[in-house]
Amino acid sequence: MAEHREFGYRRLHSLLGVVPIGIFLVQHLVINHFAVYGEESFNAAAGVMHDLPFRLLLEIVVIYIPILFHAILGVYIVFTARNNVSKYGYFRNWMFKLQRYTGVITLVFIAWHVFETRVQIGLGNADLDYSLMEGILTNPFMFWFYVIGVLSAVFHFANGLWSFLVTWGFTQSPKSQQIATYATILVFLGVSYIGIRSLITFAYGV
């Protein structure tokens, strides 16, 4: 019974990593990418998200609770899971290791990002707009912190997408898993470009 319960938790952990957390990550980075087209474009896109009806409720139910559950179970997996060389081989075990490391980095990054762009704003009079992100990312230390955080989050999502496809039975054969590997590499490269490109714009105005 305990094994079945843990299996169910892990399936839910995998599902939440893709829906809704992964979808939110991509959507969030796409909104940020509007900065490339100018300050007004970013502020308009961010304003649409800010003015959504029941925004706080949606954030709690669709974002914060899933992330909290995913993070807590993820930390448990980090300290209890072991590599399976005989089943997946050298490359996949390295991906598994990186999945754990990037999960911890992403958790720290998200906690700081939420504090910096939500909590501090709530305590002060600042607006979540282009000038706020520009002020944060013109600091070289914060720029590289965000670069590492974004790359870790995107890798964690893309590699987690591969695990999701296996866990939920979509890719069972070695060939289908190999195709999924190539597809998720493309996802990582594409989404990383979107995220890093907007960071460069905020930091350097280009």
Summarize this, please?
Its main location: membrane. The chain has helices at 2-18, 21-33, 39-50, 55-80, 85-123, 130-137, 140-167, 174-204. The chain is mainly α and 206 residues long.
General description of the model:
By secondary structure, this protein is an all-alpha fold. The chain has 8 helices and no strands. It has helices at 2-18, 21-33, 39-50, 55-80, 85-123, 130-137, 140-167, 174-204.
Note the topology.
Elements: H1 2-18, H2 21-33, H3 39-50, H4 55-80, H5 85-123, H6 130-137, H7 140-167, H8 174-204
**DSSP strand count:** 0
Strand content: under 5%
Helical/strand content category: mainly alpha
Helix residue percentage:
over 70%
Distance between the termini: 56 Å
How would you name the oligomeric state of the polypeptide chains in this document? single chain
Taken from the alpha-carbon principal axes, the silhouette is globular
Average pLDDT for all residues: 90
Number of helices: 8
Poorly predicted sequence stretches spanning 5 or more consecutive residues: none
Radius of gyration in whole Å, from Cα?
18 Å
Largest sheet: number of strands, sense, barrel closure: none
> What's the helix-strand series?
HHHHHHHH
